[in-house]
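Progress narrative, Year 2. Work on LMBD2 protein from Neodrepanis coruscans advanced from sequence curation to structure prediction during this period.
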Amino acid sequence: MSGAALGLEIVFVFFLALFLLHRYGDFKKQHRLVIIATLLAWYLCFLIVFILPLDVSTTIYNRCKLAANSSPAESNGSYVTLAPSKQKCFKPWSYIPNGIMPIFWRVVYWTSQFLTWILLPFMQSYARSGGFSITGKIKTALIENAIYYGTYLLIFGAFLIYVAVNPNFNLQWNQLQTIGIAAANTWGLFLLVLLLGYGLVEIPRSHWNGAKRGYLLMKTYFKAAKLMTEKADAEENLEDIMEEVRKVSESIKYNHPLRKCVDTILKKCPTEYQERMGRNMDDYEDFDERQNSYPSEKSLVKLHKQVIYSVQRHRRTQVQWQILLEQAFYLEDVAKNETSATRQFVHTFHSQEPENKIIQYFYTPTVEWYWECLLRPWFYRVLAVVLATFSVIVVWSECTFFSTKPVLSLFAVFIQLAEKTYNYIYIEMACFLTIFFLSICVYSTVFRIRVFNYYYLASHHQTDAYSLLFSGMLFCRLTPPLCLNFLGLTHMDATISHQKTQPTAYTSIMGSMRVLSFIADGFYIYYPMLVVILCIATYFSLGTRCLNLLGFQQFMGDSEMTSDLIDEGKELIRREKRKRQRQEEGENRRREWKERYGNRDDSTRNRVVHTDQKESSFSETNANRPLSKYTRSNGRTERDRIELLQDAEPLDFNADSVNDDPLESDSGR
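Result:
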């Protein structure tokens, strides 16, 4: 099994990252380089989280083996080995041979840093650029990132000059490398604590509120009102942009040098607007730059950028509106079925997507009723209590992990107890659950936050390229300090435990933080305590209240604006529900008509076709004969009248209400 666990996790994490990227990105419409760069960033970050527990168990085994081969308190180079244990050191099932992990961590870490600081910012500007050629997009990206890259080069150059001039510093290349890593981890830790403080409270609270049916339904109504406003704004913005495109398309003729740019813009427009505007190729009048004023290429680049943004936003709001409607209808069905005496879940609308037969066989209406109306609320409550317990342990450990005698960090206590018995499976499971929970708290916040319309991760393939690249950049900056924080909580980091024991391979790649003592002994230890204040602020929703005061409507139960938006959203959902009901009634009537009179219509049509064929053959045989005195037009007219009467749609006297307004019926009828 040597190295097999590492290989299995590498493959599993790849498919996990691919699945999540497929959920948020669009492989068909987005550029391949954007998909590959985002997939690589997500994959490397998830890989660090999954592989780190194997590094911990391997390090514990190496310490045991080193202690067994040395005398008590014997010095071995830069490490001090402990007294040999009476228990034999068993090799863990997931043991990774020496020399593999340092190379692995070095490749993974420096690749992620290259992505987050150099490649992904450049690709963000490239993807958001409105240029019409690759050269133009690269030029725009370089100009936009000139200040970004110049700032870092200026800081790094000033630091090098200071080190070269000051005789007290005698830094080598490894120490400069460690300083660069420390600077990147400091920036990441600053953002990490902010996101962690929000996730530690919001994740258990969201699962606890998930057991409240009334709460979820009211929040869905609130989201519907806000989304309808955003949807209307997106439609209005798209109309304005399309009007500008129409004017540009009419002013720039077929033989203008910039006509190719206009055609590129038209290809990015929705199909209905393309058909409406056309290409204006019927006008062969030559252009005259002296008489007419034409837009410049720079203005077309700006218009191209606006078209891409407006079309993406309009498509996203349309898809999100349909998803929100399905969610609201389902929550209303749950509220109705809670009082059902038959204990079978009844849906108001049938699913538009075909369901799996295996799921239909096991997930029957009775099973669905017991899960949705009885078991699911209790499951969410129990899960919320477990997550809240984990959050309390994390907060306590963040405030006490610097204490080594006595050991106050609960995660360090768990690992040290398992280390005494060399229970490697327990060590790996404890490490995995700890770092997995920390990752969920941080990464879920990255998926939830929204910076206006510039950064927003929308599911169902509705995330734009800029947001995907920005998320990959955030993951690469947050994951290394997250792992260092985890090693500090478990006292596997020698900088925290103050013991000269063999470090993990991940810590050895990071280098000794003793080069910058004020960061190792100050910022890394005391700044994570700020998570307590952030958790308290999140618990009392101070950020939500501040945003609400600034005019950004947030869901708050004691707000009058929230109540108004809930009522508005409820009315919108009711209208959409009536509309869909009328559509289904019309489809059911047409289906019943086909089932009831379909065979009769087919036989009538076949009889008419057979008669027509006989008449045509009879007319062909008598073509050369003189015209007959008698005709059969009256019989043919009678058959046409019978066919028309049979094709007419009968009145439905089985409807629920006879006095329905015909104007409210579906247009498809």
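The CA atoms of residues 17 and 600 lie 56 Å apart. The first helix runs from residue 4 to 24.
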